[in-house]
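User: Hi! I have a protein structure encoded as tokens and I'd like to know what sequence might fold into it. I'm fairly new to this, so please keep things simple.
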């Protein structure tokens, strides 16, 4: 009977540059997403540390990178054959997190640069780019670039905190946008448009971190207002702010979908 076992020299799927080329050919969109996310991270760093380029240009390039990433993810989530001009399609479209962040880039393409605006898209790009970088390194070989693997592991270990920080940035940005509108750093319509973005994030099916962060902030505000040492006017102001935010939240049944 012929020996059906692999040859002794066969160590599994090929690794190295040929394997990377094959991976790129088979996963063009995923590799493109990885590259654009890396560029978004680099542009954000370029905005903070403008050593080689114009920080204003880097700011808008980061937003464009986020828009391109979101559009590609939408292409993956909603194929072109399913696109239609119906209420059902629009409802499905705005349930997608990628649609939220495509809208996010469009909101801020004509406002004055602000680091807080780039914070959530930088954190998401960093997290997803790090995750796919590990796939790229595995394609090259298990022992390739151990320093890069260590850095990726640190990012993934902090993934929960990164997502919470991104959600907090989304929330804190709302009053900042209101102040920007009052001081003519953006259109007076921008806070109203951004409000819809925040409600979509609150009702997100795939990412509960914005909703959870709102609940954590409310609990913190309630504990602060309950302190006997807090002046009565400040206690009343906190209670009024909590009531206002609760009224602005979308229905709980929408968030639970």
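Assistant: Happy to help. Inverse folding works backwards from shape to sequence: for each of the 257 positions I chose a residue that suits the local structure. Here it is:
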């Amino acid at each position: 009977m012929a020996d059906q076992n692999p040859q002794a020299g066969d160590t599994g799927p090929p690794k190295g540059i040929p394997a990377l080329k094959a991976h790129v050919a088979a996963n063009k969109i995923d590799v493109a997403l990885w590259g654009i996310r890396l560029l978004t991270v680099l542009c954000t760093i370029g905005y903070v540390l403008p050593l080689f380029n114009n920080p204003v240009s880097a700011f808008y390039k980061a937003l464009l990178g986020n828009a391109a990433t979101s559009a590609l993810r939408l292409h993956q989530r909603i194929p072109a054959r399913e696109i239609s001009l119906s209420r059902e399609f629009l409802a499905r479209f705005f349930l997608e997190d990628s649609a939220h962040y495509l809208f996010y880039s469009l909101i801020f393409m004509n406002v004055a640069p602000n680091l807080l605006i780039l914070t959530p898209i930088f954190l998401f790009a960093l997290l997803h780019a790090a995750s796919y970088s590990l796939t790229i390194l595995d394609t090259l070989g298990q022992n390739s670039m151990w320093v890069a693997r260590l850095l990726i592991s640190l990012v993934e270990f902090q993934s929960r905190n990164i997502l919470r920080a991104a959600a907090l940035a989304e929330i804190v940005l709302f009053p900042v946008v209101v102040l920007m509108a009052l001081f003519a750093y953006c259109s007076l319509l921008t806070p109203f448009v951004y409000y819809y973005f925040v409600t979509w994030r609150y009702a997100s099916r795939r990412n509960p971190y914005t909703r959870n962060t709102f609940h954590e902030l409310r609990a913190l505000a309630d504990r602060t207002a309950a302190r006997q040492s807090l002046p009565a006017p400040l206690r009343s102001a906190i209670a009024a702010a909590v009531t206002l935010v609760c009224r602005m939240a979308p229905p709980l049944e929408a968030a639970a979908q």
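A useful reference point when you look it over: Confidence is low (pLDDT under 50) at residues 6-10. Feel free to ask if any position seems puzzling.
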